[in-house]
């Protein structure tokens, strides 16, 4: 399993509720998808039942649960490959839903 600290990322929101995370991702993204729990971004497995993942330019924004610390919204820049991967998954997987 990959550790978030291995990547260049920015924390946009911390210690937030599920709704606050989803709202921030929607507000700062051109496209937003709900992915099922276990979906991975660069080997980082996302926890939950329906996790919002958004795109802004070539940046990817996602909700991340850090055990004992709560919910965060993370932005990783220069992730066009991850964006392409999720768009392809959306076309093939009925469990991935576009919400914006």
Question: How is this fold's topology laid out?
Answer:
Layout: E1 10-16, H1 18-27, E2 31-36, E3 40-41, E4 44-45, E5 50-56, E6 59-66, E7 70-76, H2 80-92, E8 97-98
Antiparallel strand pairs: 1-7, 2-5, 2-8, 3-4, 5-6, 6-7
- Average of pLDDT: 91
Question: How large a portion of the residues is in β-strands, by DSSP E?
Answer: 35-45%
| Global outline | globular
Structural class computed from helices and strand pairing: alpha+beta
The biggest beta sheet reads: 6 strands, antiparallel
**Total of DSSP H or I helical runs spanning 4+ residues:** 2
Strand runs, count: 8
Oligomer: single chain
The N- to C-terminal Cα distance equals 30 Å
Spatial ordering of strands, largest sheet: 1-7-6-5-2-8
Poorly predicted parts: none
Helix % is 10-25%
Summarize the helix and strand pattern as letters.
Answer: EHEEEEEEHE
**Gyration radius over CA:** 12 Å
Commentary on this structure:
The protein starts with 9 loop residues before the first strand and ends with a strand. It is about 25% helix and about 40% strand. The chain has a six-stranded antiparallel β-sheet. The chain is built from two helices and eight strands, in the order E-H-E-E-E-E-E-E-H-E.
